[in-house]
């Protein structure tokens, strides 16, 4: 049995279906008799790379149809996320849409707006009647892509992907810890809360190795970036910790002090997870068998260095 065809004569339903396709938002501009004209459109598409062609469409009921369909050219301005108000303005029947709007002539001669994500200035290649719209095909004579992220349109509403992504919570902050050891001792520093800690730093764009090297240099020590000793997530603080053992040459540290690597020696470490890690290191150092901890600040497992990966 053949399924019934969708009802294509419901304009609202058809518009809603078209709205499921996310588009950008543009303002199409031209000049007639020395005056700038423009309208908002999301029916924009590239057509060809060679020759460089694009298209937009304009409603046949538009008062500006003749100016665009019989003129010498037009520009397509791709709006940025900050230009929702400008989009709304050029979609309304306002007498002077360009009032208080900064623009300049593009290389072909049509208005190019300030603050857009990109613009294309075109000569009119062809105007093609198509139902209740006319398709304007333009040959690109100049263009520019700028840094501002583009404004989107989806299901009848504006969308700002870049601004939305920036406002979303990021992943956990990564903290690198340097467990600097020398002659059976470990370097501890003031944690700013009346207790002790190992040297720590936030990992920035430079990466873990650079952050670790900066920590070691800050304390005036010569130490190697040794093996990873613990990787754990602290859900309380939203942080991801990477602790590395850093064997150091004997020397007086700048800031902090060496203490005996023992349970008593690290008793004043404030953070419970860090203290437990150092107690484990003290126990493992006595027998010379080390492992790597994986888990959270509360629970996890130690994988011994001679173990294979857990299936």
From TrEMBL:
Natural source organism: Tabrizicola piscis
Top-level taxon of the source organism: Bacteria
UniProt-listed InterPro entries: Flavin_Rdtase-like_dom, NADH-dep_flavin_reductase, Split_barrel_FMN-bd
Molecular function GO labels: FMN binding; riboflavin reductase (NADPH) activity
Coiled coil: none
A Pfam family matched in the record: Flavin_Reduct
PANTHER family tied to this protein: FLAVIN REDUCTASE, FMN REDUCTASE (NADH) RUTF
Keyword RNA-binding in record: no
The protein, known as: Flavin reductase
UniProt entry keywords in alphabetical sequence: Oxidoreductase
């Amino acid at each position: 049995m053949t399924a019934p065809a969708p009802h294509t004569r419901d304009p609202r339903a058809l518009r809603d279906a078209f709205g499921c396709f996310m588009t950008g938002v543009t303002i199409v501009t031209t000049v007639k008799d020395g005056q700038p004209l423009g309208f908002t459109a999301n029916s924009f598409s590239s057509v060809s790379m060679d020759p460089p062609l694009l298209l937009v469409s304009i409603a046949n009921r538009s008062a500006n149809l003749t100016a665009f369909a019989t003129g010498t050219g037009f520009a397509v301005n791709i709006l940025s996320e900050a230009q929702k108000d400008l989009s709304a303005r050029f979609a309304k029947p306002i007498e002077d849409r360009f009032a208080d709007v900064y623009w300049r002539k593009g290389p072909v001669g049509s208005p190019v707006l300030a603050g857009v994500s990109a613009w294309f200035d075109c000569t009119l290649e062809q105007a093609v009647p198509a139902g209740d719209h006319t398709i304007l095909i333009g040959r690109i004579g100049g263009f520019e892509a700028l840094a501002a992220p583009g404004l989107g349109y989806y299901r009848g509403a504006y969308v700002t992907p870049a601004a939305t992504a920036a406002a979303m919570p990021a992943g956990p902050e990564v903290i690198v810890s340097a467990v600097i050891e020398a002659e059976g001792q470990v370097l501890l520093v003031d944690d700013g809360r009346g207790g002790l800690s190992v040297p720590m730093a936030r990992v920035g764009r430079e990466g873990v190795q650079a952050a670790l090297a900066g920590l070691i240099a800050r304390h005036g020590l010569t130490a190697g970036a040794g093996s990873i000793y613990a990787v754990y997530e602290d859900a309380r603080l939203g942080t991801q910790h990477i602790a590395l053992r850093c064997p150091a040459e004997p020397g007086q540290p700048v800031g902090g002090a060496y203490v005996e690597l023992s349970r008593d020696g690290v008793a004043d470490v404030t953070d419970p997870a860090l203290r437990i890690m150092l107690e484990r290191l003290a126990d493992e150092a006595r027998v010379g068998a080390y492992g790597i901890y994986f888990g959270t600040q509360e629970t996890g497992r130690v994988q011994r260095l001679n173990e294979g990966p857990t299936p």
